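Thread: pyridoxal-5'-phosphate complex, take 2
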Amino acid sequence: MVKFICKKPGKKSIAILKKDEKVVSPSYAREYSFVFKKGKGNYVYDVDNRKYLDFAAGIAVNSVGHANPEVIKAVKKQLPSGLHAAFGDFYAELPVVFIEHLLKIVPRNFQKAFLSNSGTESIEAAYKLARWHTKKKYVIAFNNCFHGRTMGSLSMTNSKPVQRERFSPFLPVKHVPYPYVYRMPFKNENDCTNFCLDKIEKAIKSVKGDVAAIFMEPIQGEGGYIVPPKDFPKEVRKICNKRNILFCDDEVQAGCYRTGKFLAIENFNTLPDIVSLSKAIGGGIPLGATLASSKIMNWTPGSHSNTFGGNLVACAAGIATLDYMKKHNLGKNATKVGKYILKRLNEIKEEYELVGDVRGLGLMIGIELVKNKKNKIPAVKERSSILCKSQEKGLILLPAGISTIRICPPLTITLKEAEQGLNILEDSLKEVS
Ligand SMILES: Cc1ncc(COP(=O)(O)O)c(C=O)c1O
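Output below.
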């Protein structure tokens, strides 16, 4: 029997939930019973025709808004000429044009790209490239990280125990603490940074330097929207330089202007060796890209490939998405609206005992809920209630980490819409408090 965590949804939703339960793998973890019918701009509608403001963007995918007309136009234009060119075996112009577009936006360090269909694949490519290029065995990843669910990326992922249970043995990974300032017992950010850097050095030593890469999310996503101290990525870069290790930057969730800059790592004044992108880059069509310099991406033909990478429809959508993001200055909008949301949330934090921490960059914002500000015990049930109440009031939100609410709307969101969403969120907070 379908269990409703929140208020019972409408009739049409219930009918689909029942069919879903019969045939769909139960491994998906759905937070509540929103049944998507259509999306338009910054709004989504359920099958019972209820309208919702979208503060989730399909987990940071619909950054250019739902059913973006320019992306649709590009896809439609491509459809009659073919969908699949077998880019792993033959040549085609569109994937090349897409990569050229992308390389014009990212810093100059990157000259080559490998194309795929998802975040986990763009991480697998980075992982394999790092091992191929360095001929070394281990990688370092952070506690709470999320890099995907195929075995290479899952070997690193550990934001929740359920993601790893029964899947070992894993590939050789050393996990080290991520500077989660709010939850670590340090007086200041510097001490937190130094503690984490020391753990990295110790991990490298423990395997006698046999480390191909350090994988890092510039802002942790699934782990709880955790922003590291400003200097931390730069210090990781220094360790990589000193120890001849590649710095692999997972921009799957944080990339594509979500934090204001195209790459989130650019906010921290440093650059990685390999970048993994996906989610928003296809405007809603599955697309992944792994970038590196020509010097690093020098693997031999046959060492890595796939069937669907460079898919023509995905590349057409990708080009239109990047063009739209640039033309409409979505990075600037993310910074502007993000600042407003953070300011308002910090005011809310002062008023509610439940709100332990507010953090974020651009439109990647987390609100960590706690039983009370002193004991910092995660307010897990309260978070579920707030998500449900917000949905009832017409706002789509998603969780992250143990008791954090994530705010990641389309980058096209206006100040007025942000205000409307925050009003709903505050009403729900008030009721649950
Ligand atoms: C930072 C990060 N990396 C990798 C992934 C995996 O992406 P996908 O689910 O497309 O495989 C995700 C997905 O949420 C992510 O947030």
